[in-house]
């Protein structure tokens, strides 16, 4: 008799993907400025290491928060016993307000509609358990975060059907792509339960436009399905525009408190904005009482440590800290992204114009031998093993076009980033055909900037008042 | 189209059970010595509040552990980023050694076989996902922890088939009960994947005897199935005998490193022994590499906060502390249990002789109007609403005999326990027919102690050398 479940013996954990394999290679030979200067530079991990100093200063000034004290008195006992899956009220309140602050206080979040979870990994899986039966499907725009294959499908038995997005319009979601995905699900005899988007997008590094958001809300309305908006990167927006949440759109369309709004759910986490993936803090926000109720019970399987809830409720309740943090975070991300983009340009490489996130979506199609995923994998191996940079190949993100890579910029020092770009430039120039492309790309880019009509390579998400030309 | 999953719309979360309803009643009217002296006393929550002072003292002497520092230097950044699902090595090492210490260092635990999870709630569910397909069954001896209905079945789709235990032999597991359960599963067309026991038992408060453990190991060997031993209460053993783990039995039967040993898995947690349910620290221990590997990946859905891993690795690495703690914990639990048992006796109420746990399994059959579960529920309501004690009725633990209740003793002060016993005595004496029974029960118990042959009410688990007479 089969002794272990198919979840164990199958590869539904999704970890045979290159996304995870590159990580493993890095672990074997990690770069260290002093101890291993020729090691692999990790550019495949979307971490935000730019603002730890701000949190460390706050911790030094507020020692009670970490020391399990309140006003100098130990509250260890209270915290040790606190396992209420409704979560610490002060913490949920602070989270709700932080989420509002990120959205310019244009929308409100009711703390009672928040369900805490051990990271957004847990939040997303829990939502799947609530919204989908075995074999039901969710539509996801490609490219998407490789972890979703595990998080949404592995233990839930749900399926993902891709909404194909292409570089022809900067990977934006179109009506046609949505309908096509929906029909594909039908062909596969899968019941579509909803759409899940990450906004701002991982791996694109772009915020969804208002047009796309309206399109999504209209789509789920007409199909009577759910919309999950994973807004984990909402606090990493550094472009000129402010972040538009699906909650903004519901408000602007006067759909708050309607039946549709009960089918829109937001997922959040402090892993990216605050750089705290180790603390395991995620949240589901839903207007549907039954979901809040069920997800709350399910959160028993992944509660946030009370020790951590307490520390972060103190941190996030400090409005002086939060506003300073969000502003500084934005500044530093912007300048770091610029650094990556110029470094890539001098290597003759362009990327999708981004305004959020901890990474860029880099176009290396011109470096492929052939326009195939095999060629992409070959290039990736060269970059990992020869150039010693761990970056994520687009195929691991289910991108339909070969040659795109996600490159992270916020998880290393400026010097390390410079070194990485230098190595990349050296590699590109060492390839014969690469050398010519590098130069001519560089020229081309210079002239492009002078044009007013944006090239198809650039994504203009900054002006919704101008018709979207991609 | 059905918009929410059946997991949401049905009651498989198990929270319609009286176990949780009593809890709700308590929340509405909680006892407080000063503010609400007539409120409901919580005796339904298996918490260990007896040794917080020991931990608080340790924290005061070791401020770095909670303060996110190592040798005075901030390691905040390192912890904030640490999300490796393999867990903090120092913590797994300390946990392994703590588990060894609890078992008198007779067996060894390899840290690389430990999978950390957010509480044993998460650990048990994860093991189900690894060992069972939807529709497969695990056999559990009754009475069992009500939470298992949710933890083992809800999202996994697994089934529980009870192994009926009765008061005729002190609720011990017998060969025939095991076989009967196995056959029952087959009648129901369910594939049995294993047996799950809690040792020491919740709600019985007793350790499994060596004979029962041998029986279990032989049973899973012959049926080629798994054995999960939830040893969450292993550090609460206060009787004369030491705790015998299934790991001891494997060693004594020379089955370590055998194929059978790969089908024996231990679950642990710091929620009961250390009284830290709020910190969400659980673990799976397995000799099966594939289970460790899959469970490790699944732990992504419920990782332990790095902040908490660090604090507890410091605490548990301090052997002086752990030695003192385990010793003192045992002492205080023993005293408190005695206090409960005498208080019950004075009310003419007996209980299963216990040697572990944070509760007693109390015999109130003589207080029932009829030998039915309806009568048990009537009695329970009286005790909750009139006597104002929240205790857990045996039916919520799937006990096959009406009239048994689980009563906790380690989650309140001595004075509160005295008050609870006083209230109970008054109630029992106030019932006319009860008055006679109360007096004669008291006499009867006194004389019983003089006998050498134990009455069937008492469970003798202290002398395995004597043939088990229950």
Automatic annotation (TrEMBL), chain A:
Q: Which Pfam families match?
A: Aminotran_1_2
User: Would I find RNA-binding among this entry's keywords?
Assistant: no
Keywords in alphabetical order, please: Pyridoxal phosphate
Q: Does the keyword Zinc-finger apply?
A: no
The UniProt record lists the Aminotransferase class I/classII large domain at 41-424
Mind telling me which PROSITE patterns this protein's record contains? AA_TRANSFER_CLASS_1 (PS00105)
Family as reported in the entry's similarity comment: Belongs to the class-I pyridoxal-phosphate-dependent aminotransferase family.
Q: What is this protein called?
A: Aminotransferase class I/classII large domain-containing protein
This protein's encoding gene: A02p059910.1_BraROA
Automatic annotation (TrEMBL), chain B:
Cofactor(s), by name: pyridoxal 5'-phosphate
Q: Name one Pfam family in it.
A: Aminotran_1_2
The record places domain Aminotransferase class I/classII large at 41-424
User: Keyword set for this entry?
Assistant: Ethylene biosynthesis, Fruit ripening, Lyase, Pyridoxal phosphate, S-adenosyl-L-methionine
Which reaction is the catalytic activity of this chain? S-adenosyl-L-methionine = 1-aminocyclopropane-1-carboxylate + S-methyl-5'-thioadenosine + H(+)
| Domain of life, per lineage | Eukaryota
Pathway assignment reads: Alkene biosynthesis; ethylene biosynthesis via S-adenosyl-L-methionine; ethylene from S-adenosyl-L-methionine: step 1/2
Report the top EC class in one word.
lyase
Keyword Aminoacyl-tRNA synthetase listed: no
Q: Give the E.C. number(s).
A: 4.4.1.14
Its family remark reads: Belongs to the class-I pyridoxal-phosphate-dependent aminotransferase family.
Protein's recorded name = 1-aminocyclopropane-1-carboxylate synthase
Native organism is Brassica rapa subsp. trilocularis
């Amino acid at each position: 008799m089969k002794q272990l479940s198919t979840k164990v013996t199958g590869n539904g954990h999704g970890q045979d993907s290159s996304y995870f394999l590159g990580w493993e290679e890095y672990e074997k030979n990690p770069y260290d400025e002093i101890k291993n200067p020729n090691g692999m530079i990790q550019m495949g991990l979307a971490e935000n290491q730019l603002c730890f100093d701000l949190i460390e200063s706050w911790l030094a000034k507020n020692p009670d928060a970490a020391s399990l004290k309140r006003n100098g008195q130990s509250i260890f006992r209270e915290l040790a016993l606190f396992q209420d899956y409704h979560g610490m009220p002060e913490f949920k309140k602070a989270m709700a307000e932080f989420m509002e602050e990120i959205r310019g206080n244009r929308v409100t979040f009711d703390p009672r509609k928040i369900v805490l979870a051990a990271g957004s990994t847990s939040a997303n899986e829990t939502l799947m358990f609530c919204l989908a039966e075995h074999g039901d499907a969710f539509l996801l725009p490609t490219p998407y975060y490789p972890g979703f294959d595990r998080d949404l499908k592995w233990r839930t038995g749900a399926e993902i059907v891709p909404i194909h997005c292409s570089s022809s319009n900067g990977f934006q979601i179109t009506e046609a792509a949505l309908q096509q995905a929906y029909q594909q699900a039908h062909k596969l005899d899968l019941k579509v339960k909803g759409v899940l988007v990450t906004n701002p997008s991982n791996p694109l590094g772009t915020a969804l436009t208002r047009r796309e958001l309206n399109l999504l809300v209209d789509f789920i309305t007409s199909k009577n399905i759910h919309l999950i908006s994973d807004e984990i990167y909402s606090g990493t927006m550094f472009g000129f525009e402010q972040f538009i949440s699906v909650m903004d759109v519901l408000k602007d369309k006067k759909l708050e408190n309607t039946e549709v709004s009960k089918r829109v759910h937001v997922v959040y986490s402090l892993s990216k904005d605050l750089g705290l993936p180790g603390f395991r803090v995620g949240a589901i926000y839903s207007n549907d009482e039954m979901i809040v109720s069920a997800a709350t019970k399910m959160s028993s399987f992944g509660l946030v440590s009370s020790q951590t809830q307490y520390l972060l409720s103190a941190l996030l309740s400090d409005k002086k800290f939060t506003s300073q943090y969000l502003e500084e975070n934005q500044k530093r991300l912007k300048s770091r992204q610029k650094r990556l983009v110029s470094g890539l340009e001098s290597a003759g490489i362009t990327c999708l114009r981004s305004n959020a996130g901890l990474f860029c979506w880099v176009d290396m199609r011109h470096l492929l031998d052939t326009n195939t995923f095999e060629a992409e994998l070959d290039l990736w191996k060269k970059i990992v093993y020869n150039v010693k940079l761990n970056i994520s190949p687009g195929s691991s993100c289910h991108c339909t076009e070969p040659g795109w890579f996600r490159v992270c910029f916020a998880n290393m020092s400026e010097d390390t980033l410079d070194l990485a770009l230098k190595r990349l430039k050296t590699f590109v120039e060492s390839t014969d055909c690469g050398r010519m492309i590098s130069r001519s790309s560089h020229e081309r880019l210079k002239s492009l900037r002078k044009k007013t009509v944006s090239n198809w390579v650039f994504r203009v998400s900054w002006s919704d008042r101008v018709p979207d030309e991609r």
